[in-house]
Amino acid sequence: MTTEPNFLAIGVCIAVVSLTLWVTFAASRRSRSADGFFAAGRSITGWQNGFAIAGEFISAGSFLGTTGLIFYKGVDGAVILCTSVVSFLPVLFLLAEKMRNVGKFTLADVLVFRTGARRVRIVVAFSTIVTGTFVLLAQLVAAGVLLQSVSGIPFGLSVVVAGTLMGIYVFVGGMLATTWVQVIKSTILATLAIVVALGILTKFGFSLPRMLSGATDNTAAGDAILSPGMIFGQTGALNLVSYSLAFALGTAGMAHILIRFFTVPDAGTARKSIGWTVGLCSMFYLIVIVMGFGAAAILGPDGAERVGTGGNLTAPTLVTELGGGVGTIGGSIALALVAAVAFASIVAVVAGVVISAAGTFARDVWPSLTRTNDDENDVRDAKVARYAAVGFSIFAVILTMLIGDSTNITYFMGMAFMVAGSAHLPSLLLSLNWRRFNSTGAVWGISVGLVSTVVSLMFTEALWLGSGPAPLTIQLPIIITLPLGAAAAIIGSLLGEKRHGPSPERDEKFAEMLVRAETGIGAELAEVRP
After folding, report:
1. Alpha-carbon distance 266 to 271, whole Å?
2. Which residues pair with residue 472 across a beta bridge?
3. Which strand (E) or helix (H) includes residue 518?
4. Against a cut of 0.90, is the pTM above it?
5. Tens of pLDDT along 127-175?
6. Which of 122, 153, 212, 501 is the one with CA 20 to 30 A from 450?
7. How far apart are CA 278 and CA 46, in angstroms?
8. How many CA atoms lie within 13 A of 427 on its CB side?
9. Which letter, b or e, does each residue of 456-473 get, where b requires 16 or more Cβ atoms within 10 Å of its Cβ?
């Protein structure tokens, strides 16, 4: 899809990106050590971290992808947003404070606290990178589609621009820069979303029934847009439950979300972060539902042609129409603002994912590849992570260009949540709460969760390459893969204990971890910098 360049939109995009780059370079002097690069010096306050975590969710997947999904699929698309809000409850009650007290920089730091096994670091690193790849695919597809729509430059070149920027953010500014970029982006995007929602409701006299009636009148699906089943199809409740579980539980295993709890000075601040996140996300997701149904009502019968097959241009097309239409000054300004903020949102999210993957490579993979014994070499870790970020960015850009722009990005995000929920969550919970959990259980649980997820996805409709209908009608079969990952972690731990016998040292380490996780005693002290 190519259009005439919108020079106003391009100019606003450049202005917003310039602001975020200024923040990045300003943060660079505080990101030279590993503590500064990976954890922002543990100086982030509760509201700042809450806005940053919300920024990871208020992304292209929700603003662009889910708006388009609701435009095409109606109620079923809205269910995904509701489960996304619920997803913070497991993080709040089960992980937030314990993660802050036990971990240091990466997800593997928590899982190896009791065992110190390097093989656990390797398998966690691989799973984290796979999860991050799915997230990056979603965000970079959105970036390519968005830049292509406002500038007219090809999709591939648009992806390269976004990938270059995310590499700069991480290489130069580390976690501190990506955090502040997320805070700025979340604030602007939430404000803009409120304005757009008010614009939509104004057209219908602030009457939701009138808006929904207009949606059924102007879409090909008709009344079906207000009924369940357009996404979840023939399998009905089973598909709905599995899809919802992927989003509801996957958050608690997403590495780029969990490592943000290492940026705050103490566990209490980590808990407060979630409160800010839930409030901001709840407000935004309600607005996205209004935007999706509002687009169906306002864009008319030819709306599907204007938003693309994946629906990823629904939000930009909607705000252009609210501003007065294509070619008008108001429409151009509205598109410029949405395009700039959406692009900043995309780049901020991918930067957070890249720093997670880069940190995982530097701390969990590189020491094993080079056979170095100094596991706590801060200078080396920060340096390796910077160059790993560049390499990971290049890999993600190439893979995105191979996939193209036709898939709705929300489905890619669902894949990422499914991997995180099946591979990471069971082992994290067992590691923090079960005395008999060991390195064998961690390796088995993560490996089985990851492999079963990838294999099962190959048999779903979205990735099925064989002839005839796909064998699995469940779109995100976490209802199968999560129990497999949990069972493998438990069985592996029991077999590992049987093979190696009782371990007083392991029991002692578990007791130390339990005290540290629950009270914070022994956790690394963080200096709150001005």
Report:
1. 9
2. 460
3. helix 504-519
4. no
5. 888 888 888 887 788 778 777 777 777 888 888 888 888 778 777 777 8
6. 501
7. 13
8. 39
9. bbebbeeeeeeeeebebb
